[in-house]
Design goal:
Blueprint (H helix, E strand, L loop, with lengths): L4 E5 L6 H8 L7 E2 L14 E2 L2 H9 L3 E7 L2 E6 H10 L3 E4 L2 H11 L3 E7 L2 H10 L4 H8 L2 H6 L6 E4 L5 H14 L3
Parallel strand pairs: 1-6, 1-7, 2-3, 7-8
Antiparallel strand pairs: 2-5, 4-5
The protein binds adenosine-5'-triphosphate (ATP) and ligand LQESDW3C.
Length: 181
């Protein structure tokens, strides 16, 4: 079995991007209709697109998957996935539960699904430190329980609570080495 894609999935602020960076794999940069956060740039964190552009690509059948998360669209153009298959270079990406199920159906044993969880209290604190307002934090955490339940199809789940950081760093390095990176 050879893994060509690593997917990270979990609730907002569970630590997906942090763990993705530590894994050090080239990232598949997906599309979103949400506005960039401070410090985010186009083509690096996401391809920031208009809602209509994303809907058009979806209608043309050129999106592998697209999801609506708290009022914004997020999606993976098929061509990004085709490039991954063609390059045969292992990559990583961040998806929600619906997206990761689609990718799992496509890649089967060639995808590693890593679920990231943390307590709701830790996620709330991290979102607040990241500068989100009360309403945005409430909205993002309103799907917390469902997003934790959706981790059940993951191959492995990392418990990335604040007091577990040392162990998570070690486990992430362990996974990276296991992937031959
Ligand atoms: N184990 C940890 N202990 C303390 N802080 C952490 C830990 N892991 C991540 N963080 C911090 O929590 C914040 C959110 O992390 P990150 O952006 O990786 O989450 P995410 O799941 O990608 O979030 P989102 O889906 O909302 O974009 C960051 O400021 C990060 O530095
Ligand atoms: N199905 C997809 N989900 C995606 C994709 N890119 C990101 N995501 C998920 O969206 C939420 C919110 O992201 P944020 O950057 O606004 O915090 C995040 O939890 C991801 O799981 C995608 O291309 N498809």
């Amino acid at each position: 079995m050879s893994i060509c894609l690593v997917v990270l999935q979990g609730p907002s602020a569970s630590g997906k991007s942090t763990i993705q960076s530590r894994l050090g794999l080239p990232r598949i940069v997906t599309w979103t209709s949400r506005s960039p956060r401070e410090g985010e740039s186009d083509g690096v964190d996401y391809h920031f697109k208009s809602r209509s552009e994303m809907e058009r690509l979806y209608e043309l059948g050129q999106m592998l998957e697209m999801t609506e998360y708290h009022g914004n669209l997020y999606g993976t153009p098929l061509k990004l996935i085709e490039e991954t298959v063609r390059d045969s270079e292992m990559k990583s990406m961040i998806l929600d539960g619906a997206g990761s199920r689609k990718v799992k159906a496509m890649f089967r044993d060639n995808v590693l699904l890593i679920g990231i969880k943390a307590s709701k209290e830790d996620c709330e604190k991290r979102l607040s430190l990241r500068g989100h307002g009360f309403e945005e934090i409430r909205t993002r955490l309103s799907s917390f329980d469902r997003e934790i339940a959706e981790l059940s199809h993951c191959d492995v789940i990392l418990n990335n609570t604040d007091d577990n950081k040392g162990k998570i760093d070690m486990l992430t390095d362990f996974i990276r080495e296991g992937l031959g990176k």
